[in-house]
What we know:
Blueprint: E1 5-11, H1 18-29, E2 36-42, H2 49-59, E3 63-68, H3 74-84, E4 89-92, H4 104-112, E5 117-125, H5 130-146, E6 155-162, H6 163-171, H7 179-186, E7 190-197, H8 209-223, H9 226-255, H10 264-297, E8 304-308
Parallel strand pairs: 1-2, 1-4, 2-3, 5-7
Antiparallel strand pairs: 3-8, 4-6, 5-6
The protein binds uridine-5'-diphosphate and magnesium ion (MG).
Amino acid sequence: MLPKYSLIIPIYNEEATIAALYDRVCAVIDRFDAPAELILINDGSKDRSLLLMRELHDKDPRVCYLSLARNFGHQIAVTAGLNYVRGRVVIVLDADLQDPPELIPALIEQWKQGYQVVYAQRTERRREGWFKRFTAYVFYRLLKQLADVDIPTDTGDFCLMDRQVVDLLNAMPERNRYIRGLRSWIGFRQTAVKFERDPRFAGDVKYTFHQSLALAISGLVSFSKVPLRISTYVGLFSAFVAVVMMILVFYWRIAYPASPLTGLTTIVVAIFFLGAVQLLSIGILGEYIGRIYEEVKNRPLYTLSEVAGFEHQAK
Length: 315
Ligand code: UDP
Ligand code: MG
């Protein structure tokens, strides 16, 4: 029998949480009104995660897993899972139990009310460190200002999606997969369920600062063309400043011929300013061109080294 609910859980070096995760998820799905499947995606873990996933699969046929051939990153791991789901209702959650599985029935309740996307919105980040909280706060507000689509603030990938939405997501060819952005872009009826984000169950944060920054830039660049315009604006502004300076310097030269102010200082400052503006603009251009390059290469999004649990179903 085909499952009605599919849970997607990306896993990267989570050996310390998998057992607890399985228990808590089972407590929830055992009470569902229809069968569920659990899709675990091993994102190139270097610890015993894959081993534990195999064990779970052996003892519980509801557990299927995919193993990516190396670490491809969270967004791609989720994408791989989305490619394999069979249920009508798809739920994405983190493995570290920061996204409480106990919230899933509330998400499903909204789906039954007729919403195709139900995203969990965090109201509080308990014990996540001021730096992470602050940068996340700034980023989500900035994204809201700049993005062409309305991406709700403080939502992660923890959400429920209807099959219809997942099929559309899967049909999107792009490689820069900022899933929470694409999810908003798709449209349909969407709603939020609020929750308090728990601290990580065990282990360290798997997203490095660099990865978080890359995800943030990816979100901005994939959903906004405003940064491209920044160089135009700054260029216009410096042209204006240049004209004003020209007039001032001309006046200064005539009024105070002996003043050193109009000499070296002005030139050095102007050179640095323009240099900075140009490098910044080239950097922004590079972000977009790099992405175009990634897209045209058209490589597969990920490579799989192992797939288990989907045998009965021709893909
Ligand atoms: N993760 C992954 N690949 C990575 C990094 C993380 O699949 O390269 C998974 C990780 O196992 C967890 C989820 O993505 O299930 C979120 O990671 P983490 O808790 O480190 O990030 P945060 O809570 O800061 O979003
Ligand atoms: Mg986490």
